[in-house]
Each structure stands twice: as C-alpha cells, then as structure tokens.
Amino acid sequence: MMVFKSKNDTQDRQAEGGEASPVVTPTNFDTTPVWQSVAKNYDKEIGWDEIVMGVVLLRRWLISKAKGDVLEVSTGTGRNFDYYKTDQISSVTFTDRHESMLSEAKQKYLNSYKDKFHKAFFETSVVEEAKSQKYDTVIDTFGLCSCGDPVEALVQLADSCKSDESQVLLLEHGRSHYDWLNRLLDTNVDKHVKQWGCWWNRDVMGLFEDERVKQKLEIVQVSRWHLGTTCYIVAKPVKQQR
Prior knowledge:
The chain has 242 residues and is α/β, with parallel strands linked by helices. It has helices at residues 32-38, 42-52, 55-63, 99-113, 150-159, 179-196, 204-207, 211-214, and strands spanning 68-73, 89-96, 120-124, 137-141, 167-173, 217-225, 230-237.
C-alpha cells in the first residue's frame, strides 16, 4: 500500500542509550492488525499526499491502460476505481489479503461504482498464491511493499496472465536513486511497518533481476518519480519457447 508519511517516521529507531529493537520482517511480524486499524481512515490519511505528489495522475495514467479481463491485486480501499476505462474492459476482479481493506473497497463500490463496471468481483486472496483464472491485464499498485514475498508475487502475477500478449501494470514504491534517502528509509523501516504495514525500502527494480522473475516477466516501459522511490512499470510475460 502507498504511504508517504508516518508520524515519527523520521525519528531514530533506537533511543539514545537504549537497545535496538529486533528487525521487523514478514516472517516475524503479522501486518493484519495494522491494516485493521488503518482501514477506516486510510483514504483520509493518504488522499492529500497522493494529490500533492501527483500519484493520482500516475494511477490514472497506468489504470487507463487496462483492457479485457482484469485482475487487480492488493486492491486496498479501491483507490483505482475512478481510473478504469470501462469501455476497454470485460470484467475486473479485485483482490486483497486483508478483509478489513477489501471491505472498505466493497462499500465504496456499492456506494458509488456499482453501475460503472460491467462485471466486478471481490475476492480475499494472497498475491503470492496461484490463481485459477487467467487475465488480459494484471494490476498491482503499491502492493509489493507490503506482501510477504515480492519475488513470488511477481511470479504469480506473470502466471495469472492469459498469454504473452497480456500486460502487467505496476505502480510501486521502494528504494531511491540516492544513498542518503535510502539510509533514511532503512533507519525507519521498522517503525513504518508497525504503523503502516509497509516495507518502504524494498528494491523494486532489483526484483526484476531475480532469475525467477526474469524467466517470467520483461519490462516494456519504466519511469521513476519522487527521487526514484516511485516506480511506474509496464511489463509483459516472457514469451515461452514451444
């Protein structure tokens, strides 16, 4: 999930004279309670940040590319609903592992969007798990920072595609071009995870250098924003040898 700010994010993780807390990882920290606590006010907390930083424009730019049968993982509270061009899509399946966030998306859909989409489905599922259906477009916006295994997530996104003509659309945030900013992200990552459920220092572009991902996905287009921390990526499945 996309989060730009967090109270006290820029404070030192270790108090003077104190002991450092254990490093927070997906294996030793369950983010479910975090998402339960932030779900109701999530849109209010990050909405203005996204406007000021131009993220709403990046969302619009990306989501407008969706065509055919669409899978959106890490849907969260449904912050992409506005940007779908429904004359280009046949169906859209919205998924998230956290029921608290998906419930907010469902309510938003019922209140304002039920007449927009031809066919819309909601499923609670984990992005790293294999999907039974295949799709023309697979979308993830700010989800790789909060999943347990981002490499496996990308592999499964590729495997969810119908063919090598399908597209994978990603808007993610992580490490910067600049060492000074990366040090700040690293220093405060544990605090940020505990408040927002997000590992904001992951090397998003580096994930595409993993052999498992290279066998599955190739990047068609990429641009980086906000000192390199925001990655706009259009990818497609690697054409398999027959």
